[in-house]
Amino acid sequence: MTALVFWGAVLLLAYAWVGYPLLLGVVTRRPRRALRRPAAATPPHVSVIVAAFNEAGCVADKLRSTLTQRYPWSRLEVVVVSDGSTDGTDEIVAAYPDPRVRLIRQEPRAGKSLALNRGVAAARGDVLVFTDANALFAEDALARLAAHFDDPRVGLVSGQGLYGATGGGDARAVANGYVRYEAFLRSAEGRLGFLAGADGAIYALRRSLYRELHGAEVNDLQHPILAALAGFRSDFEPAAVTLEPPSRGGAQEFRRHVRIIAQGIHLTRRWLPGLLAARRYRAAWILLSHRALRWASAVLLTVAFVSNLALLGHGAPYALAFGGQVAFYALAVAGWLGERAGRRLGRLAVPYYFCLVSAAGLGGLVRSWRSGAEAVWAPAGRVSAEERAA
Length: 390
Known about the structure:
- This protein is an alpha/beta fold.
- The protein is built from 13 helices and eight strands.
- α1 packs across α10 and α8 crosses α12 (349-371).
- The longest helix is centred in the last third of the chain and has 28 residues, at 250-277.
């Protein structure tokens, strides 16, 4: 029985991180056949929705990168919803010299999801683009997203957020490596018509598919599910990119992942039964493989370690497996100590950040069980009171 537990945990981990990507690659070897349809004579009217809390340091650059897009001037607008900002964000947006910019203030502070509801209610566009205040658009990002909506089957298109060259060090290197891994998964999932989460830094949704979010619902995970339930496809456009600062280090990355995973667990519990009831079995498989199993990594790693310890003396494979685990965790601890000492980690960053993100899965599970998914958030680079208390 102990051996079954050990190998079961190992196989689930291997499937989540290696087997699922390989299976996607096999299933999607043939790209989907594009619908032969002439491009729209007039590009869709695009509304860029930005929920902002104390973003005075970057909101002007965000507006500039949006309003200088290679996109028809009259077909683009920006709606900034200030969620109780106190640092001058409102004054910067209100004074921006472009009539396509609108400011809405949410008072008192109520969280990102409710801010997005306000922004969408005020928006005039047929296509809604959701993005972060600190994520700067590449010059043709919006045009690349909008082009996918010439296909009437497409309800959502995700781009990808990259991490900038200023600051971040090892965190930036690991984050961009993870982005490439995610880009492969999203590209394959897009050929199957469902994404296990859009990139919150940049994605677009048909206006007709938007439904008001509850305070603790995370938009970039919920919107692909809503598109699937409505019978629409989700696509991935790797050339539609944003650039943003990376996390400052492991502690901030851990808190961010705990919050995101807690929200994701809450969302999966709510919507997975609906996907199964609607016979969206492919979407359910993608959601469970890409998200749920990864969130369980810390539990599976613990089960594998403890059961492997009990199996020592039952053959060389178990001794080798245990030695490999001990060596991997030793490297992760060395990475943690190196970061605390202010040293560059190099390759030690990989085992350290893998263990950190896996542990965040357990933290997210505990937070979801203890208090649910919180509605209030802090921008990148800052920590909310809720996260400090976690």
